[in-house]
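Worked example

This section walks through a single chain of length 289. The input is the sequence exactly as stored; nothing has been trimmed or padded.
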Amino acid sequence: MAHDVYLSYDEKDLDTALNVCETLESNGLKCWMKNRDVDSDNRVRSIIKAIKQSRLLLLVHSKNSKHSKFINNEVNEAFDADRSFLVYHIDDSELSDNLGFFLNAKPKINAYPNPEEKNDVLIRNAKNLVKKQRKEDRKISNIIKDNKKSVAIGIIALVVIVAVAGFMMFNGEGTSSAPVNVGDFKIQITDFNKEDVSKQDFDWNYSYSVVGSISPTPDKNSGLSIVVDFYDKTGKLVEEKETPFEDAQISGSGLLFGSVGSDKNDISYVDVQLVNSDDVIIAQDDSQI
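Given that input, the structure is written out below as tokens.
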């Protein structure tokens, strides 16, 4: 993906859209805006490409955008591309019938009359939606759907490789190496705990650690990584840890998936994923304190 958020807005709401963009980008989310990022040589093609390459379409909704055919087209394009949506209302105008058809069931933020008071909500919702869409995009079915030509070429190449490898094995040359597939491994969290370390010499007050098992045990050269997402009680992503499997440590009760220190006593949910070199989730488990 080229960016996280595609900002859809009417030109009359440009100042508000710029403020939203600044808020998101200052908090680590890369945005795309037609007034800033469009390819002037082919405006329409550039916009369609940007929508498809986004993870989230954020609609700055107002009386100006309510009946915009251009925005209807943007929303329709994002819907067809299975992107996530967030509607950011900057006045009390309701969605039109056309927009409502696509967006009535999508997350919404009523940001009027003081949008700056909703910045925390905006950041939290946008980050969570981008994170969820990233996980969706990791799934094999979506990777295949979005890269049909590449997958077809890959399948042909794989058939050739397998045939050559089989010939070499039959003739006593080389060794076999099984590919890693979804379902080949099972990941299980056995211990998710919090330790009060405020009395010790640390810059933070609490230590959170996640321990578990992976069966069967992957090879050291499998190319797999362990990704651990720590969330607080509101569902906000606090920290993401990624560790190559070969670097994972063994704790007293199993494999240490990940740990994080925090000043706050509010991390309550963890999501652990076993991910291959193509960023596809091979196995997954979650737990709650």
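What to look for: DSSP finds eight helices and 13 strands in the chain.
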